[in-house]
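Page 37, continued from 36.
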């Protein structure tokens, strides 16, 4: 059977980086094909070549047995290939219908805009996907999942027979991801071929038929998913066996050594008073479902949003944290969850991004000396989290998604914080790098830093945290530690105590 798509011997270099080296990939109609690899392995680049966004240096793109020459995304679309980017290309102020038909509106016989016709067509597409999405709301008001489904509908409306999904689940809740998988199965039935990129091994085994593993820009292997195991795939991906991604380490935090004491923190006039204690050198997990109020509490604490009332002590001293800068001055830093809003300045170098709010550290030195100190510290920090980049001068915008995330972490490590709050720190991070970040966190706690880790991933909370606060509908429903800290208890409290 002729594959729907064959990428043959694709190579692509950027200045200083060989991003792809002789990579081949076949995708058949009705197949979901996983693309797996560490951060910076070349997955997104390969897909951008496929979609005409980058031009390959060598190699061929063959669709339905015919070699194609793409000079831009439009050419790929014309050949029936659609891509759903991690960063969406939808226009937030427009509704679903206008987004789907942007730039190619239907006209009636009089040449007038045929809104009714477009609505009908949009309905038909949503029916095909079995989703119900409001057609007339600005899509900024819809959930990320709905926006993603609109992207898919849009691609289908362009007759896409091959759909590329680049880390689609990174921003979805588990139930939204399940819905996406249902849609993908539906499309598979209809003969659509799909390339699916994800760092979540269980998703690969849930939804994918075949898997191609990449490492350092090269294809290492491809095989049927039912003929392999997660451990094998990880070994191929990382080049070694990753036995235990969680560091073996027991916290011996002194129960009475409280660094941060939230005595009463009220976020909304009619909301609850939160109280919580953080011990020196511990990792406290904030567990719970997406939207259960974990991020809100963290933001209220550091003054990113203004709480109604706050009584907070740091090392016994009452403090007023009116602004994130004030929190930072008191040694509390928050690494926010969304890469896009984390304030990375994409055209700026890694060095500039990392030293951005660490500048005070270097003040007082002579300019030349300061520059040198800055370079050294940046290089150390980048090495600590293993940012894969040609050097500190590389613009952050040229890094792979996961490596951008690591730059954010490196930046915060540069502060000498007493308390670090990580909000979903390992989203979009590959297995090997995850293990490194966990080890790094443990190292920080050994130096007396206390960590709050907001995480929706149970294994992460269980594997890393000394204690967990479980959130349910804007409240801390339980604090668990020791033998009481297990997945059943967390799920029990995270779902309002309904499950048993
Ligand atoms: N526009 C660009 N300019 C220079 N280098 C780039 C550019 N785009 C990607 N690279 C480099 O090419 C390599 C592959 O990046 P790519 O984005 O394909 O990785 P990835 O496998 O998608 O990783 P992730 O899992 O982090 O998304 C990286 O070293 C990256 O820094
Ligand atoms: Mg990528």
């Amino acid at each position: 059977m002729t594959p729907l798509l064959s990428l043959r011997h694709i190579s692509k270099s950027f200045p200083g980086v060989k991003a792809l080296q002789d990579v081949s990939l076949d995708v058949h109609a009705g197949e979901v094909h996983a693309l797996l690899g560490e951060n910076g392995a070349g997955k997104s680049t390969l897909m951008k070549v496929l979609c005409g966004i980058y031009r390959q240096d060598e190699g061929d793109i063959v669709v339905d047995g015919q070699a194609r020459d793409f000079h831009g995304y439009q050419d790929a679309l014309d050949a029936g290939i659609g891509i759903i980017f991690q960063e969406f290309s939808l226009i937030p102020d427009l509704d679903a219908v206008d987004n789907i038909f942007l730039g190619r509106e239907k006209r009636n016989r009089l040449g007038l805009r045929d809104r009714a016709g477009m609505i009908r067509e949009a309905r038909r597409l949503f029916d095909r996907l079995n989703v119900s999405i409001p057609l007339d709301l600005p899509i900024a008001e819809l959930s990320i999942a709905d926006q993603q489904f609109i992207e898919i509908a849009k691609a289908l409306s362009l007759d896409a027979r091959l759909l590329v999904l680049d880390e689609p689940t990174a921003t979805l809740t588990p139930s939204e991801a399940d819905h996406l998988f249902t849609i993908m199965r539906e499309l598979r039935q209809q003969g659509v071929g799909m390339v699916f990129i994800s760092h979540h091994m269980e998703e690969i085994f849930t939804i994918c038929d075949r898997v191609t593993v990449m490492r350092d820009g090269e294809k290492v292997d491809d095989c049927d998913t039912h003929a392999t195991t997660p451990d094998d795939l990880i070994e191929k991906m990382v080049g070694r066996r990753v036995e235990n991604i969680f560091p073996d380490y027991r916290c011996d935090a002194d129960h009475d050594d409280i660094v941060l004491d939230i005595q009463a923190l009220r976020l909304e006039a009619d909301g609850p008073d939160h109280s919580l204690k953080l011990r020196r050198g511990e990792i406290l997990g904030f567990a719970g479902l997406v939207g259960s109020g974990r991020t809100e509490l963290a933001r209220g604490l550091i003054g990113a949003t203004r709480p109604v009332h706050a009584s907070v002590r740091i090392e016994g001293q009452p403090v007023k944290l009116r602004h994130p800068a004030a929190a930072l001055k008191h040694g509390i830093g928050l690494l926010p969850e969304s890469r896009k809003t984390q304030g990375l300045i994409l055209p700026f170098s890694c060095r500039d991004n990392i030293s951005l709010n660490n500048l005070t550290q270097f003040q007082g030195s002579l300019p030349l000396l300061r520059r040198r100190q800055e370079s050294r510290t940046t290089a150390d920090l980048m090495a600590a989290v293993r940012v894969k980049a040609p050097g500190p001068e590389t613009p952050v915008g040229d890094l792979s998604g996961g490596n951008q995330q690591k730059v954010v972490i490196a930046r915060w490590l540069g502060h000498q914080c007493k308390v670090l709050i990580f909000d979903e720190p390992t989203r979009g991070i590959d297995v090997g790098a995850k293990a490194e970040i966990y080890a790094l966190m443990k190292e920080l706690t050994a130096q007396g830093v206390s960590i709050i880790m907001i995480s929706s991933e149970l294994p992460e909370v269980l594997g890393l945290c000394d204690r967990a606060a479980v959130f349910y509908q804007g409240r801390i429903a339980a604090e668990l530690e020791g033998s009481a800290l297990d997945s059943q208890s967390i799920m029990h409290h995270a779902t309002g105590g309904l499950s048993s």
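Residues 367-384 form the longest helix (18 residues). Flag for discussion at group meeting. The two ends are 50 Å apart (CA to CA).
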